[in-house]
Known about the structure:
single chain; alpha/beta; FAD/NAD(P)-binding domain; seven-stranded mixed beta sheet; five-stranded parallel beta sheet
Amino acid sequence: MQDVIIIGGGPAAMTAAIYGARKKLDQIMIAPEFGGQQVWATEIENYLGFRLISGYDLARKFEEHVRDFGVPMVADRVVSLSKADGSFKIKTEGGEEYQSRAVIIASGRSSLNLGVPGEEEFKGKGMAYCATCDAPLFSGEDVAVAGGGNAGLYAVIQLAKIAGTVYLLEAASFLRGDKELQDKIKNTPNVKIFLRTRITQIKGDKFVKSICIQNLETGEESGIPVTGVFVEIGSRPNTSFLPSDVKLNDRGEVEVDCLDRTNVPGLYAAGDVTSVPAKQIIIAAGEGAKALLSAYEYLVRNFAEGV
Length: 307
């Protein structure tokens, strides 16, 4: 039996793992992939110690740090979590079962789909959900980005360096991303911004050829010829594996107190999956450290002989 199992592979999970290793805990991390959503950030300027670093490079540095501590990192997806007789049981998509005295949920969030006709048909054929991964495929091509939050603005900044015209579509009447990101794209000549506008359909034959858009104020519909559509409209917390007795808020996030405790004793949560506001890398990392220290106190208090 493990002392603690950390579910997730992003900044919160990896920071928790480092703190667990320093406490000499018997622990493992379980995640389908390691790095977290930060991997897709083109440029990061606000993580202490790095004036400018890509999300991918920062994620690799995190992972290298964790591996240096010898923390087992299991590449699998957790499908269920339950508690009985004072311990937790975890089942994975790969058919494995694990037991632990405490658990830290740091499973992060997943991107949302547009949910419009043509989206499923053209996934991998012009529909994209990762500008860092797929932007080079659209060199010189006209593309659309759905979403005016930070993720959408990061995508626009990256695509504007590679693509032809970049159309940014936002359903709200304003862009929701950070002011400095907005300033960058507003001063980029090949970026065109459409507010109060949504994509209603993706069209093409073998690949994406155009999008249908609707002005939400006038109802007017029109088309834009593009070969790529990047979806950056938000995300949902990854909580489908949790039992029904774990308290979530109205946004589906895990409710935690100031010590990252959930309503279930021995179950902690950290990072973007939680109710803690401001989804930032540095905040997730700090919350991961706090969750592990809280879990350690729980282990000492309840299982002192085995820690």
